[in-house]
Specification:
Length: 1154
């Protein structure tokens, strides 16, 4: 506020010593000792009144220093409770006879004993003071401005009350019901108007000051209304009414006669009839609010606090001067406002509140404001105005709040939000007509609980700058009481410079709401204390997994930066102790030293760092820590503060999450572009579609690769399929959209529509080499009943497209379901049919199967019963609330019912525990994750509940390489769940996102660091979680539909000596998965007994490794390549695998990812 000068630091320092006596931080009759870790006290005896421990040197000290009590400080502690060398059970409390003055020397003596690790004073911990006023719980605004913290600076229990009855706060307003139970004992008494002949009789405690309690006790029912109260003192028959202007401060013996409590400037009518009774009047409901205004303001100013009733006031213990400027018969405006201001100032008010005003400027009134401030030394505080009549904010100049030398207060809501009052900055030239000083400060002004007439319920909550202004005035009163000799300039500068910033909450009014929201604790405490706050932290990870982020299972050394606020005292000898109440954080070094931190500066524990570790099973997110900070300024009352903050434990991959529009499908993790780094190593990308109509390809660094994102014509929510569909050595992406186009996107981002479907393409395409020519054909389904099978250029295979009997919104599964040598395309429709289509356009025997509901959960294929012929069963969910299993002949084997909701998520299947039997997992709209075995029997511990409907398809992978896979699935409760096979949560899961997770996860090594990541799309982010452990995915179901070709088939893995069926010719199948990292399975058939060789070749035709070299009999076989070359991991790239028999060679291509 430009109208006030700044006070020098010298003045501030000298005034700091005028504060109320500070409470001791330590007990005066006791202290603590901690024994060395190798010292133990077995028993404490008492001999001649002195404790005896059996430790010779210690017992001598106990006797010499006359210790009368020695007992364990923490009775529940054990020798296992250790913090470095400190064993909690070795800490003892020692007491001396009260009144001893040599406690410091006694502690020093014990410190030198070799059996003692340290000795120290015992701290007194006090609760934050809360008054006992019955309506205090409704006064949200007092904690907001930190009034309780300010009160807690005083030893209230010891009789050192905040505030002072000598500090006078004037309510120049509509009058005050000074007989109100919550006001009557805080009413200002004009000492000069107590007649001399009765003064000593009234002053019952003979302290030379007559209080309102003493006046109330002295009077009787002079007015004859049957009630004795303060108003009786003003009755004509009262001995207080001697007809004199005894104080005569205005040199006019007839002007303010018998003004015992204040003055009624306005009187009864609009004429000139003032009187000495400032009682507010209540003439009826129509104007009750107007008449009670001054009483409401008076309660905020100076209500009796801690009196067991009503409300509290910030000043806590001040005197309320009542000045009435509304005549009794008025229902409208203020009358004699400036007269009332001048009266209050000349009568001795320290703080004058004006909760009224208008838009007109008066040079005369400005002169009054100047005189009150400069000559009579009062601080005037005024309401800034309540905005426009339509409830919107206004920057129209408002007075008297806008006058120079008046503190202008605007109003805020409970969240420091501004929305309806006046605002503005200084305008014009000081001293000139029309000058507007602007808003100086803000304060709570909504739902403000205070006093009203007892006939109206005694207490009501009102809104307005009329309420904000007396709140600030009451703060001035408390500060004035703490520093009674301070100048007005100093008081105002202190209040205005100690506010809390609110501009960030109200950016449209930044700089126009004064210096901020009033904070009385800051105003008082900064004169006696530093103000240390948490600033930031930095970590040195001691066992980093390589991502540079603090993750579960890691340890760190920590530096914590502390900031000492400008304008507060310097912090001397700062030390701190780190604690955490989280079960996931273990503190290994709890102490840190900072030295001195000057105000306005940051201090760092540069050398003395804290240490901690995070548990392996810690959740991702923010974990709580607290720092107990203490200064050592040489006094008995050091500053101590507990600072709470959090550390970010991240399961996120660096550079993730990244913001995205809605991602409903799964994703592909693959090295799409084939670009190699300087070491000749490629890197994976995440391929996904979102509701921004783009196909994205994001690298591990969070950036799109060259050529991406690719613009599609409209939304695409399907999971992309990835494969080398044209056998040219490069991968392509196939995806359909809601614009009915089926797109092929090249590795460089070139895009082409190869087919336009008759309906929306919502399901992922499936890729399969039906004709064995090395190219992959594309299977695509759509609404409007179309099943299309085409070559990579969009040319349809014979007999396709086909029109079936209903919409198809989920993908196809591809496999030879009945082991007859013909590959089937399995699809389900909204026509309640399950189809198994042969390439010649016919159905497999037993199909289509008639269902009991629409299918919106894609079928998968697996040899559930382990039948030796290799036939496959079909598993899918339906809107009949069931998960179904059908055999290869179209017969239902079993079903599992959900509780009450459809199953619209695709199931997943794998042999989770290596016992040779499959387990099946699926989520439902009933918020449950189901798990059954191959017979449809629920697994123990399942189903598992989530907090939202589930559209996500599970990913299954062994993330910790223990031979048992885990389940990962998203939910519309914003969580990604990680579940063990018994249904329990994996440590650190579930992981919370900010939006729902509808996408289906993938488990893969995204960044090539040999540990796994979990990649999943959400409604607002692409999430990548770093698991920080090695694992295995190839044997399970690590991505949507099981593989990047989205064929929805899980093949049984058998060894090279295990036969499944008896083929009639040699055949080499496509490896699974492909692309892969690090393992892939290779299946082949031997039609007759022969010598067999199976080798892996690099792109130059060199042998990488030999998998099989042996005579083999007729059968079907499968082997696994572990991705190694001569005992070391093979480089990423294209490889070939060659099956050699007496009939020749069969060769296929595969891609190893890193």
């Amino acid at each position: 506020m430009k109208k006030h000068i700044l006070i020098s630091l010298l003045l501030m320092a000298s005034l700091a010593y005028a504060a109320s006596p500070e409470k001791s931080a330590y007990y005066g009759d006791r202290f603590l000792i901690c024994l060395q870790p190798d010292v133990t006290v077995e028993k404490i005896d008492l001999r001649s009144g002195v404790p005896v421990t059996g430790i010779s040197s210690l017992d001598k000290l106990l006797s010499l220093r006359e210790i009368v009590v020695m007992e364990q400080y923490l009775p529940g502690s054990t020798p296992d409770d250790m913090d470095g060398d400190i064993i909690l059970s070795n800490i003892y409390q020692l007491r001396v006879v009260p009144g001893r003055s040599d406690l410091e020397q006694t502690i020093a003596n014990f410190t030198t004993d070799p059996s003692i690790l340290f000795a120290e004073k015992e701290v007194i911990y006090r609760p934050l003071y809360t008054p006992n006023d019955s309506h205090y719980g409704n006064q949200w605004y007092l904690p907001k401005i930190q009034a309780p913290e300010a009160w807690d600076l005083f030893d209230i229990a010891g009789g050192d009350l905040p505030g002072d009855r000598s500090i006078v706060l004037a309510s120049v307003d509509t009058g005050v019901q000074y007989t109100h139970p919550d006001l009557k004992d805080r009413i200002w008494i004009n000492q000069a108007e107590v007649p001399a002949d009765i003064f000593s009789a009234v002053d019952s405690n003979s302290d030379g000051v007559v209080t309102p309690e003493e006046v109330g006790a002295y009077v009787t029912d002079y007015d004859g209304n049957g009630t004795t109260n303060l108003q009786d003192a003003l009755h004509a028959t009262s001995p207080f009414m001697d007809g004199l202007d005894a104080d005569d401060w205005d040199n006019n013996s007839t002007s303010y006669i018998d003004d015992l409590f204040g003055w009624d400037v306005a009187g009864t009518t609009s004429g000139n009839d003032p009187d000495n009774d400032p009682m507010g009047t209540f003439t009826g409901p129509a104007d009750s609010g107007n008449k009670m205004h001054g009483t409401h303001v008076g309660g905020i100013l100076a209500a009796n606090t801690d009196n067991g009733m009503g409300i509290a006031s910030t000043v806590y213990n001040g005197a309320l001067m009542c000045v009435k400027v509304l005549y009794d018969e008025s229902t409208g405006g203020i009358s004699g406002g400036s007269t009332g201001i001048l009266y209050a100032a000349k009568a001795g008010a320290d703080i004058i509140n004006l909760s009224w005003g208008g838009s007109g400027y008066s040079s005369s009134d400005q002169a009054v404001a100047n005189l009150v401030y400069d000559t009579y030394g009062a601080v005037t505080v005024a309401a800034a105005g309540n905005g426009n009549d339509n409830g919107t904010p206004s920057d129209t100049p408002h007075y008297p709040s806008g006058y120079d030398k008046v503190v202008s207060v605007t109003a805020l809501g409970s969240s420091d939000n501004f929305g309806w009052a006046n605002y503005g900055v200084e305008a014009g030239t000081p001293g000139q007509f029309g000058y507007f000083s602007g808003i100086n400060i803000s304060a709570p002004g909504e739902n403000i609980r205070s006093t009203v007439y007892t006939t109206a319920g005694s207490y009501q909550s009102w809104d307005g700058t009329s309420m904000a202004s007396p709140l600030v005035a009451s703060c001035f009163g408390l500060l004035k009481a703490t520093h009674p000799e301070a100048s007005n300039d100093w008081l105002i500068e202190n209040i205005l410079s100690s506010t809390d910033s609110i501009d960030h909450i109200n950016p449209n009014f930044a700089g126009q709401l004064g210096t901020g929201r009033v904070n009385i604790f800051n105003s008082i405490a900064r004169l006696s204390y530093p103000q240390l706050s948490y600033n930031s932290y930095s970590l040195q990870l001691t066992n980093d997994n390589g991502d540079g982020l603090l993750s579960p299972g890691e340890s760190a050394l920590m530096r914590i930066n502390l900031f000492n606020s400008a304008g507060w005292l310097d912090a001397l000898g700062v030390t701190a102790v780190l604690r955490s109440n989280s079960e996931h954080v273990m503190i290994t070094d709890s102490t840190g030293s900072y030295g001195d931190i000057n105000n306005g500066n940051i201090g760092v524990n540069i050398i003395d760092r804290y240490g901690f570790s995070v548990a392996e099973d810690s959740p991702s997110g923010l974990l709580p820590l607290e720092l107990i900070v203490t200064t050592d300024d040489g006094s008995d009352n050091p500053y101590t503060v507990t600072l709470e903050f959090t550390i970010d434990v991240s399961i996120w991959q660096p550079n993730f999450p990244i913001a995205s529009s809605i991602i409903k499908g799964g994703n592909a993790v693959v090295d799409l572009d084939g670009v190699l780094d300087s070491m000749g190593v490629g890197s994976n990308e995440i391929i996904y579609c979102a509701y921004d109509s783009l196909l994205h390809a994001v690298g591990a660094d969070g950036n799109e690769i060259a050529g991406f994102p690719v613009m599609l014509n409209y939304l695409a929510e399907a999971t992309p399929a990835v494969g080398d569909i044209d056998n040219d050595g490069d991968l392509e992406v196939v995806v359909g959209g809601l614009d009915r186009n089926l797109y092929v996107v090249q590795h460089d981002g070139t895009v082409e529509s190869i087919h336009v479907a008759p309906g929306f393409i919502l399901a992922p395409a499936s890729l399969y080499d039906f004709d064995g020519d090395g190219d992959l054909e594309i299977v695509s389904v759509s609404t409007n009943d179309e099943l299309a099978v085409m070559h990579h250029d969009g040319t349809m295979l014979a007999n396709f497209p086909m029109t079936l009997d209903g919409n198809m919104t989920v993908g196809a599964a591809i496999g030879d379901i009945n082991a007859d040598g013909n590959v089937n395309i399995v699809v389900a429709t909204w026509g309640d049919r399950l189809h198994a289509i042969n390439l010649d356009g016919t159905e497999a025997a037993g199909f289509p199967a008639v269902l009991s509901g629409h299918v919106r959960s894609a079928p998968l294929l697996a040899n559930l019963d382990g039948s030796p012929d290799g036939s496959l069963e079909i598993i899918f969910g339906s809107n009949d609330n069931k998960l179904h299993a059908y055999d290869a002949s179209g017969n239902e084997l079993w079903y599992v019912s959900s509780s009450s909701q459809d199953i619209q998520a695709d199931p997943a299947i794998a042999d989770m525990d290596g016992d040779g039997d499959f387990e099946i997992f699926v989520g439902g709209l009933d918020r449950l994750v189901y798990a059954v075995d191959h017979t449809g029997t629920f697994l123990e511990g399942w189903p598992v509940g989530t907090g939202g409907a589930i559209y996500s398809s599970p990913a299954l992978a062994d993330i910790n390489d223990d031979g048992i896979a885990e389940v990962f699935i998203g939910s519309n409760d914003r969580f990604l769940y990680g579940l063990n096979l018994d249904g329990s949560n994996i440590g650190g899961f579930p992981v919370e996102n900010t939006g729902n997770i509808q996408g289906s996860p993938t488990v893969a090594d995204l960044d090539g660091d040999s540990d796994l990541e979990i990649i999943v799309g959400a409604d607002d982010n692409l999430l990548v979680m770093d698991i920080s452990s090695n694992g295995e995915t190839a044997s399970y179901w690590p991505t949507h539909r099981g593989n990047l070709h989205r064929t929805g088939v899980q093949l049984t893995v058998v060894g090279v000596d295990e036969q499944r069926i008896f083929p009639t010719s040699h055949k080499l199948y496509e490896n699974y998965p492909n692309p892969f990292n690090p393992n892939t399975s290779i299946a082949f058939d031997i039609g007759e007994a022969t010598q067999v060789t199976l080798v892996i070749l690099d792109i130059r035709g060199r042998v990488v490794t030999e998998l099989v070299s042996a005579p083999m009999t007729t059968g079907s076989y499968r082997v696994v390549w572990d991705g190694e070359r001569q005992g070391r991991p093979a480089d990423a790239g294209v490889y070939f695998y060659r099956l050699s028999t007496q009939n020749g060679d069969l060769v296929r291509k595969m891609t190893l990812l890193k």
